[in-house]
Amino acid sequence: MSQERGQKLARQDFISNQDVRWCPGCGDYSILAQTQKSLPDLGIPRENFVFISGIGCSSRFPYYMNTYGFHTIHGRAPTLASGVKLARPDLSVWVVTGDGDSLSIGGNHFIHVLRRNIDLNIVLFNNRIYGLTKGQYSPTSELGKVTKSTPFGSLDTPFNPPAVALGAQATFVARSIDRYPSHLQKMLGRAHGHKGASFLEVYQNCLIFNDGAFRLLTEKETKGDHVLELENGKPMIFGKEKNKGIRLNGFKPEVVTLDGDYSTDDLLIHNETDKNIADVLTNFTYDSEFPTPIGVLFVAKMSTYEDRLDEQIKTAKEQLGEGNLEALIRGADTWEVE
Amino acid sequence: MSQERGQKLARQDFISNQDVRWCPGCGDYSILAQTQKSLPDLGIPRENFVFISGIGCSSRFPYYMNTYGFHTIHGRAPTLASGVKLARPDLSVWVVTGDGDSLSIGGNHFIHVLRRNIDLNIVLFNNRIYGLTKGQYSPTSELGKVTKSTPFGSLDTPFNPPAVALGAQATFVARSIDRYPSHLQKMLGRAHGHKGASFLEVYQNCLIFNDGAFRLLTEKETKGDHVLELENGKPMIFGKEKNKGIRLNGFKPEVVTLDGDYSTDDLLIHNETDKNIADVLTNFTYDSEFPTPIGVLFVAKMSTYEDRLDEQIKTAKEQLGEGNLEALIRGADTWEVE
Amino acid sequence: MSDNTKPIKNVVIRFAGDSGDGMQLMGDRFTATTAMVGNDLGTFPDYPAEIRAPAGSLAGVSAFQIQFSSQDIFTPGDRVDVLVVMNPAALKMHIQDLRPGGTLIANKSNFQKKNLKLAGYETDPLTDDSLNDFMVLDVEITELVTKALEDMKLPLKTVERTKNMFALGLTFWMYGRPMEPTIKWLNMKFKKRPELVEANVRALKAGNHFGDISEVFSSSYTVAPAPLAKGTYRNITGNYALGLGLLTASEKSGLPLFFGGYPITPASEILNQLSLYRNFGIRTFQAEDEIASIGASIGAAFAGSLAVTASSGPGIALKSEAMGLAVITELPLVIINIQRAGPSTGLPTKTEQADLFQALFGRNSESPIPVISAISPSDCYYTAYEACRVALKYMTPIIVLSDAYLASGSEPWLLPNLSDLEKIEVKFTESNGETFKPYLRDEMTLARPWAIPGTPGLEHRIGGLEKEDGSGNVSYDPENHQKMIELREAKVAGITREIDPTELYGEPIGDLLILGWGSTYGSIRTAVKRLQDEGKSVSHAHVRWVNPLPADLGEIVLKYQKILVPELNRGQFLKLIRAEYLVDAKGMNVVRGKPIRSYRIEEVANEMLESGR
Amino acid sequence: MSDNTKPIKNVVIRFAGDSGDGMQLMGDRFTATTAMVGNDLGTFPDYPAEIRAPAGSLAGVSAFQIQFSSQDIFTPGDRVDVLVVMNPAALKMHIQDLRPGGTLIANKSNFQKKNLKLAGYETDPLTDDSLNDFMVLDVEITELVTKALEDMKLPLKTVERTKNMFALGLTFWMYGRPMEPTIKWLNMKFKKRPELVEANVRALKAGNHFGDISEVFSSSYTVAPAPLAKGTYRNITGNYALGLGLLTASEKSGLPLFFGGYPITPASEILNQLSLYRNFGIRTFQAEDEIASIGASIGAAFAGSLAVTASSGPGIALKSEAMGLAVITELPLVIINIQRAGPSTGLPTKTEQADLFQALFGRNSESPIPVISAISPSDCYYTAYEACRVALKYMTPIIVLSDAYLASGSEPWLLPNLSDLEKIEVKFTESNGETFKPYLRDEMTLARPWAIPGTPGLEHRIGGLEKEDGSGNVSYDPENHQKMIELREAKVAGITREIDPTELYGEPIGDLLILGWGSTYGSIRTAVKRLQDEGKSVSHAHVRWVNPLPADLGEIVLKYQKILVPELNRGQFLKLIRAEYLVDAKGMNVVRGKPIRSYRIEEVANEMLESGR
Ligand SMILES: Cc1ncc(C[n+]2csc(CCOP(=O)(O)OP(=O)(O)O)c2C)c(N)n1
Ligand SMILES: Cc1ncc(C[n+]2csc(CCOP(=O)(O)OP(=O)(O)O)c2C)c(N)n1
Ligand code: SF4
Ligand code: SF4
Ligand SMILES: [Mg+2]
Ligand SMILES: [Mg+2]
Questions:
Q1: Which residues on adjacent β-strands are paired with residue D44?
Q2: pLDDT at B255 over 80
Q3: How far apart are CA C326 and CA C369, in angstroms?
Q4: DSSP labels for D221-242?
Q5: pLDDT at B1 > cutoff 50
Q6: What are B77-130's pLDDT values in tens digits?
């Protein structure tokens, strides 16, 4: 797909005329800005973008994008997006969703759309809370979380979104953070570039109901030691002083310091296409002792559902001939009444 | 829990007075028989068993068990079972479901109940087809499957049920086969023995709509080379002549022959509690070049949701005192009208 | 064939046997032959919810009924003239529908102890005098076919499987039907297995000859061709007709058809059928559940497809939240409900009309959706077509109600002339350079524009929050909300202009009006015909559109002393009629999982006519 | 305090400002004080769907209304006497509700260019003569509090946050309310931050003194205590009362309460509230969606809990399939719908009564469920209790209808005497050694036995397929199906015996009956009171039970010339009444997302009374 009309689009072209109504300071603003900045570079006419969301603070997103948009119902965005994409494979279809929207009520559609590998770009704003309904815990909230609906602490082990995605046969899994604008832009571009269902988790701060949920990853003093920025083909180095790394001890990953004992050569080299590495990386959760990986965790090549469907239609037409309605209606057994 | 009344129960005690209405030759018969045989050994009074199912051929199961039973609605059995177990943690609650019931319409409840680790025993009858609705493809049907609803072949990559379960934080994942009665009985016992949500996948033959789906695993000539029976702490050996094994080459598993080059010592030792091994084993699907593992793939110790809930209630009562309704109704701000 | 044949107007035959006995196939063949000899006919299969319950059990009985006639008929008939039973269980389940004096043909070979016990008989009904009301013909079918195929050395199972052909041959003899079409069909079906062709043809002929030589039947009967309108006919079931109607709408509108489905009895066949039409470019999508299937369909509608989703009651319940989204976003979407008996899972293979209120009201808040119902198997074709046309013209979701009876029942269908069908014109909006207003309306239809993604200059957002009139922006304004609710209501109400004047069968003024909707059409018409023949002042009005109601209905109902509303529910349409027109209509509310019987309607009508007021 | 005070009967004040301005808190405090001085009162908060829209925007305006009176009142009032606005957006959104001659208090400090523009004002309304109809008092609140706290050296933000206390102090002065309760409350709230106590108390007092010293008000007013029944009162909102009602039913029945929920406005608070009651042994379960939450609740009911689930319209739609399961398995289950304005997502924080039909008919097939509606915030307590009692007694799911208005509206509540509440008796079945029949019924109530897992000898299976009468085995028998459908219907119809005779407010015969259900109670009662005061022949009847309808309603409606049914929907209850009693009742159908205004009811009633017939 390429830009069909004359001049190149700019960020401004993607800003709709609707007032943005998130709380001042909400992490959603940054995700919106990075998206509006990234789209012009994709070389797609504006009218070919469709943003589809469920319900939640995050799901208000389409109203603010000057593209086609559909603010649907809670948890169902992937289903509507599937319909749009299967009907019109030429469109660039984006799903915008929250942790509650996609992993609580919408969990089933989420795993099925990944399994089918329909070429959608799914961006999950994970703030580990229900924002719009005013602060109940979500399926990504940490065990023991005190919220409006769990005043004595929540009782469920959270989902780990990339693990859920990989368990569901996802072909593209990545992560970024609202406060990392250029990284986020890069990831949006990568998600778009992947042919097939792309899953991008974005850590997003809800300053009203879960402020500082990702503090360790966003504050100057701590982020160096807590973020592992993945680069394909590069060793897994992190740390404020870039002096730490991830090494495999047999099957088991461990954090090592690059002093005398270990050097860069000992470190695990990131390979986006290695499912085993992806499995290891998904176990590095925000609640674990490991740094949180951001970047592309996993990517696999695989034909898309809509291509397979188009192919099937083409073959059927070749083999059976273009459908003939009159003949079909007649069927095999007719008789005449004179 | 232990047998509370006098004599030990027998298989006969678990047979209900309802005529079994599966197609003659259906794999469901064996699963029913093995269940009825296994239950007496669990030492639980009959009235404390509850079998809960969704909709499908497999889901007719509870009618044939002389226990408490609930044949619910399509896909929702885990939700009803959760309610029963949370209300009455002393009961032994079983979920009986099909591949369509649990992984198509019921996918979300399936992953959530695993994540919460409610102590249910979930037995999934996987026949890779919709039986009751007369032969449409299911989410476990292989890509390209020709069925009533996919006359030109299905278009979706199937789910791999243990992978979905592990991605959802399952604490017990096992597999057996309808035609392996004693193995199946053992697995039912293991599932029951696990404290937390147990997921047992049972390959089941639907002879009307998907006959021979697991032929390689059940026919005398082929099963030796295609089934890998896992035993904890034992090397992964299989083959008609017990002369093949699974070895790890770095991260990558491979099939080796135990001739001069490799011996038992080179083989991967099964460790049920090793998540990495479980990840490797789940990639051995029926459609892959590897033998199909049966047995316990993974098990992890973890407190259950209902125990955490009970604990929370206990603590609240200790700290706040037993709830006082009159005081609560009064609230803080009252006034008198004389 | 005996030359001692008697002419007769009308016959109802029912075949009943084990699920494995091939009753449906036998019914199909009888139907095809009957159609070809020019009778009018109606059929109704009745099979169990189990895929294949144990042989010989009551739960495993499968049946097929056909009525054929030298006159215009409207149903598969109520009271059975000839009952063919292949085993005791089939006898037990169906004997109560055989009319006194009717003919019972029983496969005596299967009336051994074991089968009698499975059916709950203590003694053999064929010999214990309990069937004295009927003309009983017990035939050792198993033995007779075994003998007929003796020299072929076939496995026992194969021989057993030809029993239905024997029975078919016998009934062919009874009504002087030709065997050639069936022989031709067997040759096609078993092209690659000549021994099966041979075996089945032999069994068929054996049955036929048995009729001829046995002394039991004093005569055979002829049913003359019915005076149907000129033209080419085929036999068609409701579900199949529905699928063809959707396909026709797709071709006539030039829009690609998108069908989002999830299997459920008795709607699954529509998904199965449409997925065969890949060479028509049809996109069928078997989703993970009903919610996903309607979600995908709404998405496809947004993207410019002719979008359709289908299910039955429990699945429609799951779709109800998303239907509300289709209402507020005003997208064209055809939602088909093949009703089955409930509540909950209920009797999933049985028929009922009890989802009418669900269709009208089964959503949160004021969510008006037009509802059209099919009145006969072949009418499903026109109903589906009409639903598509109206959905596209008015930019609205629409509900099509059919039911298990129409779905699998069949009747002869005069093939449509495609160019006679009312046109479907669709125009996607294009930019005129001004700010696009997605909720500006057509003055007449109140439809909003259909602006599909990919169109430059029309970028816009829609969603489930209340919209501002015109701009479509989110609005919390109280007056706007009231206005939008009224606009959505008015748009649906305006569809009355698409509805033909109500046809009255009978005088426009009279003692009794029998008013129906949907699939009760045939039963009511049959009853009213007979009542009129008896000189009673009874008329029949039948509506296909339940929302909106036809504009002329209010005047019609006032012209009769009494009104009777027969329905396969507890009085849902009745309630609407009473509320709308304040007439003291009475209900006849049958929920037996089966079509309403016309003689019962006659009885109730006569009671009403006789009781004073 | 000025000693120039005038007595007055009735006042409606509305506070409006930015979401961040603390309007709800201010409303709460005013309410608490008003309750303590013994007025009758009603309150209604009105907040935006956004959590915290940008400061100064129209979307971000949050409001709180209170009516208080020396008489018995029933609503928070329609027309506002005193409007307090903290910024131009608040003025813009609310000025149309201020009655001509009413008092407007505006925080002039916030009427700068930027805020005026955000609100869409071209000129400053405080100075451009557009507010001439009102008594305008513009106060530089920001400056005044800044001055009052000058020496405390607090951050600007903290100072700004005390503006609401200033305004509160001023309104306290206007109606001679004591400040002590608020000062006490501030001391509690900011126990650990004495500087905040000090700042807020100073602001409160500054506002109070401002009333005293400014020349604008010629007098303050007193509203005498209302003649309420003797006893102890608290102020309570509908949702909170509902939660207490459930808890009470749990205690009185001795059954553990299981609550399966999923957050949704405006029902979330019930989940939030009940999860606080762990020390009562309450098990709340936030499920993954609405389907799971009702599924778990049905499971808990099967296992012997008092099971409850709650949601709002779109969530109820999702529960509808499972409700059918509860119907056919005849398990006790309380399903609460806090209605909000739709269709679809609609106006999620606004009120409506448009889910009545969904409650009655929003399921496949014939799925009768009793429906009870709450008529006022405090009535939610009794409604919840009654629903539990009936569900347990009749072994049936039951639907409770409340709405956004009742949910967050408040009124004084005379505390109940727990021992006066009607008893709830529950007996789990035990084995008598015979084969257990789970569908044998109680002769009077038609309830089936409650046999819970863990009971020896009662092992049995239930499910969604049709049951055989008595045994509960799966049955496909046509006559049994008809019978079971009629039994389920009769069971629900029999609940009329639980319904008190309908109370008539006014004469039992007359010109006009205003008939309502649910939350319109207060508005209708207010209107009828005034109409009666004017000597009109108007009566008011109000039902809480919508299904079944009270047995005496049919006789009542026939005694009036005309009937008016005001509803916050397009005439749903109206349709029921017309169908049931064949009376030509008229609807008054308001869907503005707000409670119906009593003066509008008066207007419509007067029109009806005047128009001939
Ligand atoms: C069917 C339905 N159930 C519940 C809701 C209420 N609801 C709205 S948003 C939301 C959760 C949102 O959480 P998340 O997806 O994490 O979005 P966030 O607000 O945190 O961005 C819920 C429960 C709804 N709108 N519809
Ligand atoms: C809400 C709803 N949707 C669809 C159906 C129809 N239905 C019944 S069983 C079934 C699939 C069963 O497949 P599976 O779970 O694999 O069970 P099997 O019959 O193969 O044992 C479907 C789609 C239903 N009963 N309810
Ligand atoms: S509530 Fe949280 S997520 Fe929602 S807009 Fe406010 S800060 Fe953002
Ligand atoms: S259809 Fe298949 S799964 Fe169902 S009962 Fe028959 S053999 Fe078993
Ligand atoms: Mg969130
Ligand atoms: Mg299956």
A1: D65
A2: yes
A3: 9
A4: EE-PPP-PPSEEEEEEEHHHHH
A5: no
A6: 999 999 999 999 999 999 999 999 999 999 999 999 999 999 999 999 999 999
Please state the atom number of ligand 1 nearest to the C-alpha of residue A101. Answer: 15
Query: Per-residue pLDDT tens for D544-553?
Result: 999 999 999 9
Instruction: From B30, B55, B97, B141, give the residue whose CB has the most ligand 2 atoms within 8 Å, as the site to mutate.
Output: B55
Q: Per residue in D12-54, pLDDT tens?
A: 999 999 988 999 999 999 999 999 899 999 999 988 877 777 8
Measured between beta carbons, the chain A residues lying within 8 angstroms of D408 are: none
- Overall domain count for chain C: 3
Full domain range(s) for residue C339: 234-420
For residue range C416-432, list pLDDT tens digits in order.
999 999 999 999 999 99
Q: How many angstroms does the Cα of residue D350 sit away from the middle of ligand 6? A: 44
Ligand 4, atom 6, lies closest to the CA of B23
Give this prediction's pTM.
Answer: 0.96
Distance CA A191, CA B246 (A): 36
Residue of D335, D364, D482, D575 to mutate when probing chain C, most C C-beta within 10 A: D364
Among protein residues, the one with the nearest Cα to ligand 3's atom 2 is A206
Q: Which of B130, B145, B202 to mutate to test the pocket of ligand 2 (most atoms within 8 A of CB)?
A: B130
Burial of D158 (0-12, 13-18, 19+ CB in 10 A): middle
Ligand 3 within 6 A of CB of A98 = no
Using one digit for the tens of pLDDT, what is the confidence trace for D153-205?
A: 999 999 999 999 999 999 999 999 999 999 999 999 999 999 999 999 999 99
Q: Is the pLDDT of residue B2 over 50?
A: no
Q: Which residues of B are less than 8 Å from D304 in CB distance?
A: 87-88
Tens-place pLDDT, residues C245-264: 999 999 999 999 999 999 99
Reported ipTM: 0.96
Chain A contacts of D345, Cβ < 8 Å? 55, 73
CA distance D84 to D17: 8
Per-residue pLDDT band at C3 (split at 50, 70, 90): low
Interface B:C, Cβ pairs < 8 A? 70
Assess whether D308 and D377 both reside in one domain.
yes
The full set of domains in chain A, from first to last, is: 11-233+271-305 (3.40.50.970), 235-269 (no CATH)
Domain termination site, one of C222, C245, C263? C222
Contact C283, C297 (CB under 8 A): no
- Rounded to the nearest 5°, which phi and psi values hold at A136? -95, 160
Burial class of C85 by CB neighbour count within 10 A (0 to 12, 13 to 18, 19+): buried
Q: Is position C488 within any domain?
A: no
For C130, residues 6+ apart whose C-beta sits below 8 A from its C-beta are none
- Can you state the angle between helices D313-329 and C313-329, rounded to 10 degrees? 170
Helix, strand, or coil (residue D172): helix
> Is the minimum distance from the CB of B28 to ligand 2 under 6 angstroms?
no
Instruction: Let me know whether C147 and C241 are in one domain.
Output: no
User: Above 60 in pLDDT, residue A193?
Assistant: yes
**pLDDT reading at D370 higher than 50:** yes
Among residues C222, C251, C282, which one ends one of the domains? C222
Q: What average pLDDT does this structure show over B324-336?
A: 93
> The sheet that has A237-238: what strands, in order across it?
A237-238, A244-249, A252-257
| Tokens 């951050």 belong to residue | D155
The answer to whether A10 faces chain B, any CB pair under 8 Å, is no
**Residue of the CA atom closest to atom 10 of ligand 2:** B56
If asked whether residues D541 and D411 sit together in one domain, one would say no
CATH of the domain at D517: 3.40.50.920
Residues of B in contact with C50 (CB under 8 A): 21-22
Token readout for C291 is 């919610």
